[in-house]
Amino acid sequence: MRPRIVPITLAVALAAAVVALAGCKAAATIEAAWPAASTERVVPKPVGTPRWPLTGLEAPSPEATSIRVVSVKIENSPAARPQTGLDKADVVYEVIAEGGITRFDCLFQSQAPSVVGPVRSCRPPDLYVIQQYHSLLAHVGGPKAIRTILASDTKRYNDMDEFFNPASYWRSSKRAAPHNMYLNMTKLRGFATTKRGYPATETITGFEFAKASVATTPTVTSITVPMSASNKVGWRWNATSGTYARSINGRAHVDAVSGKQLTARNVIVMWARITPYAGDKKGVVNIALTGSGRASVFVRGQRFDGTWEAGTDAPPQFKTADGVPVKLDPGNTWIQVINTTQKIVIK
Predict the structure, then answer these.
(1) What are phi and psi of 256, to 5 degrees?
(2) What is the pLDDT of residue 1?
(3) Quick check: 54 and 65 in contact, CB under 8 A?
(4) pLDDT value at residue 207
(5) pLDDT tens string 137-189
(6) Same domain, yes or no, for 110 and 180?
(7) For labeling, which of 50, 217, 232, 243 is most exposed (least CB within 10 Å)?
(8) Do 188 and 86 share a structural domain?
(9) Do 85 and 181 reside in the same domain of the chain?
(10) Alpha-carbon span 305 to 171, nearest angstrom
(11) In sequence order, what DSSP letters do the residues of 229-256 get, joined into one string?
(12) In 10 A of CB 19, how many CB atoms?
């Protein structure tokens, strides 16, 4: 290959330019594109820390806050205690069922425990809860009338009944049936998406939270909620931990795995209309979780009396008697739902 030859005229012109610049008495200086930094450059954080909508606690990313909520129906008969996984739920509803026993609607979003249970059959209040929180419903069968409603509109009700989705459930050999059905939260979410085609994410309306836990002077140290003659729930305020400790009939209510007493950052009592349900199972009641009613919110050792209000597509909102929203403490919340005529004891 012949070497490339630069034309003489171009070479001469370039040489002359170099000499001319070298001979200038006031040579030009070229400023850097970025000035020298006297301190390390700090990249500002995005405005607004992502927070879980049901706890107000910091979430790992904005995308995480739309992870699908799972509502699990857990029983609360003496044979079902101690339960597993209640301490991992963001929100727990306790509602009356037949025979004076209660059942829980446990809402999981920020945590996904591998063992939750014992899981039992659905009831009428679940129809309200899964719409308000846009959640999946995990349960084991239920009254035929309720199962018919769930099957009638799979877009509105994303049902994960064990009868038709057994892969994420199992029975423990350590307990007698029917108090031994458990589920894996991650598996349930996976099957809901891959096998049933349900959305993996949903945007939900959250509660109102204080930016951080605020120190206050406690005015209420204990709350007793008579869910029924055979089920009296107690909550005792602990100023050191900033939580309420839960008991049933005077005995500590504990988690089966940790052995620790269950606690809540916020305890809410909702008074709602409870009426017989015109279904096929005797003794089943309907609990109206839409509309409005009286409420008492216990947070940071204080009591706020007011109202709750809820539609079909968002969780209830709680306000004081003068209409000011009650801001919850960041953390988990337990909601005790009782009939409009029932009374609670506060000390």
Answers:
(1) -70, -30
(2) 46
(3) no
(4) 97
(5) 999 999 999 999 999 999 999 999 999 999 999 999 999 999 999 999 999 99
(6) yes
(7) 217
(8) yes
(9) yes
(10) 42
(11) TTEEEEEEEETTTTEEEEEETTEE-B-T
(12) 8
Question: What is the pairing mode between strands 70-75 and 136-139?
Answer: parallel
E strands, 150-259, where? 158-161, 169-171, 181-183, 222-228, 231-238, 243-248, 251-252
**Residue pair 56/90 in contact by the 8 Å Cβ criterion:** no
3-class SS at 86?
A: helix
pLDDT of 24: 42
Residue 262 CA to residue 231 CA, distance in Å, equals: 16
Residues of the chain with pLDDT under 50: 1-46
Instruction: Residue 94: count other Cβ atoms within 10 Å of its Cβ.
Output: 21
Q: What is the pLDDT of residues 58-70, one digit of tens each?
A: 999 999 999 999 9
| Domain interval for residue 142 | 63-194
Which residues contact residue 48 at a Cβ distance below 8 angstroms, ignoring those fewer than 6 apart? none
* 308: enclosing H helix or E strand: strand 302-310
Q: How many domains does the chain have?
A: 2
Q: Give, rounded to a whole angstrom, the gap between the first and last alpha carbons of the chain.
A: 100
**Residue 163 domain flag:** yes
So what's the pLDDT on residue 279?
A: 78
The model's pTM is 0.85
SS3 102: strand
Evaluate whether residue 73 is within a structural domain.
Answer: yes
Is the Cβ–Cβ distance between 121 and 142 less than 8 Å? yes
**In angstroms, what CA-CA distances link 21 with 7, 13, 14, 17, 123?**
22, 13, 11, 6, 90
Residues 185 and 82 in one domain: yes
Say whether 345 sits in a helix, a strand or coil. strand
244 to each of 44, 130, 239, 310, 331, how far by Cα in Å? 37, 26, 9, 25, 12
